[in-house]
């Protein structure tokens, strides 16, 4: 418990190096710098907004085909699936945010420029993880 009291208000990360060359980060204590928190939140919301806009474009494309009357049920199913996907993917807990940002970057919803207000080491770690996400999709 002394360690937790000592670390209060400080972001502490333990970085483990695995044999596959990927780094994994685990947040063990405290919030980050308030400016960095704000930058992370802005980046998170930007990615979410981009993905929601893409979903809207997909729905509008589905609605352009007036011949298929059953399309409304396909749209409902599509939206339900996307809602579940977004709920699982967009998690703003600091303990998982590096991984969330890496996934969003790999999927094209987030760029390094969006993370400009964050610590350089964290941005590099996110970039490395996004490469791993990209390779995992191949």
User: What is the N-to-C succession of helices and strands?
Assistant: HEEHHHH
Main structural class: mainly alpha
Query: In this structure, how is the largest beta sheet organized?
Result: 2 strands, antiparallel
Whole-number radius of gyration?
19 Å
| Shape assignment | elongated
- How many beta-strand segments? 2
SS element count, helices = 5
Total domain modules? 1
End-to-end distance, in Å? 44 Å
Beta-strand percentage? Answer: 5-15%
Give the mean pLDDT: 79
Query: Strands of the largest sheet, in order across it?
Result: 1-2
Query: What proportion of the residues is helical, as a percent range?
Result: 55-70%
Indicate the low-confidence ranges by residue numbers.
1-20, 24-31
Secondary structure layout plus pairing:
Layout: H1 2-7, E1 12-17, E2 23-29, H2 34-63, H3 71-89, H4 97-106, H5 120-137
Antiparallel strand pairs: 1-2
Output the keywords:
mainly alpha; two-stranded antiparallel sheet; 2 strands; disordered N terminus
Describe this structure in words.
Strands 1-2 form a two-stranded antiparallel sheet. Residues 1-20 and 24-31 have low confidence and may be disordered. It has helices spanning 2-7, 34-63, 71-89, 97-106, 120-137, and strands at residues 12-17, 23-29. The longest helix is centred in the middle third of the chain and has 30 residues, at 34-63. The chain has 5 helices and 2 strands. The protein is mostly helical and 138 residues long. It has one domain. Strand 1 (12-17) and strand 2 form a beta hairpin. Helix 4 crosses helix 5.
């Amino acid at each position: 418990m002394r360690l937790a009291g000592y670390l209060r208000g400080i972001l502490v990360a333990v970085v483990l190096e695995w044999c596959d060359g990927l780094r994994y980060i685990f947040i063990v204590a405290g919030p980050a710098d308030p400016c960095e928190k704000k930058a992370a939140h802005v980046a998170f919301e930007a990615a979410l907004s981009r993905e929601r806009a893409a979903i809207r474009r997909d729905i509008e494309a589905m609605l352009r085909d007036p011949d298929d009357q059953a399309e409304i049920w396909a749209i409902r199913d599509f939206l339900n699936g996307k809602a579940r996907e977004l709920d699982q993917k967009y998690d703003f807990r600091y303990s998982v945010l590096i991984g969330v940002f890496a996934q969003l970057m790999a999927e094209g919803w987030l760029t390094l420029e969006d993370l400009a207000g964050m610590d350089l080491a964290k941005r590099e770690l996110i970039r490395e993880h996004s490469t791993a996400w990209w390779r995992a999709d191949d």
